[in-house]
Design goal:
alpha/beta, Rossmann fold, about 40% helix, globular
Length: about 210
């Protein structure tokens, strides 16, 4: 019963979702909605990585945050998604280079650490979906999906492209980004955009799983 509607939509491809193995890095405003979307779509073999705890400022944009203020994020989310594998760890450049991503079909990047994102691109580009900046924006209709080389309109994304070019990186990988100009300098956020980033990332993950498995 739980998956009847998506099975109608995906047909035999639904079995590919139930056998997929995904690691999701970061479960904040983008990652938490991506996680919920994956789980409700039938993907259950999901590993999440984050080190942070919920505070009141998260409640405008992060799934379940109002129920778990002060609690560790990955442990709290496991209460809602019992099949999760959780890793309570800060994702930095060193961790990326040391971690074994080989067992996973997809690596989903919803973090904002520049050096870690660059390491992920270099190490995991063949199975990476990365999120650029979702803060400071109010229009979810300007969210786009493209190869890293074709992204635009995002200063954070421009910095990532520049740094990858400096490192001689010429590979392709998928990025979720917004072409909307930032509305403010401060890191304000609107759930309509951050959640849409996460849902778009989930949709791209399902597309890749259906195509490649």
């Amino acid at each position: 019963m739980q998956y009847d509607r998506i099975k109608l939509l995906l047909g035999e491809d639904f079995d590919k979702l139930s056998s997929a193995k995904i690691i999701l890095l970061g479960v904040g405003g983008v990652g938490s909605f991506c996680l919920d979307c994956l789980y409700r779509s039938g993907v259950k073999d999901i590993t999440i990585v984050d080190f942070d705890s919920y505070d009141a400022s998260n409640q405008n944009r992060q799934m379940w945050s109002e129920l778990h203020e002060g609690e560790n994020k990955v442990q709290a989310l496991q209460e809602h998604y019992p099949e999760l594998t959780i890793i309570n760890k800060r994702i930095d450049e060193e961790w990326v280079w040391e971690f074994d991503f080989e067992p996973y079909d997809l690596v989903l990047d919803a973090i904002d650490d520049t050096k870690a994102k660059l390491a992920l691109a270099q190490k995991c580009y063949k199975k990476l979906i990365s999120s650029f900046g979702s803060a400071k924006r109010v229009d979810p209709t300007q969210i786009k999906v493209a190869d890293i080389s074709k992204t635009y309109g995002d200063r954070f994304g421009s910095k990532i492209r520049y740094e990858l070019k400096k490192r001689g990186f010429k590979k392709k990988y998928t990025v979720v980004f917004s072409s909307e100009e930032a509305q403010i300098k401060e890191k304000g956020s609107f759930m309509g955009v951050t959640a849409s980033f996460g849902l778009t990332m989930c949709a791209e993950a399902l597309k890749k799983i259906r195509k490649e498995k």
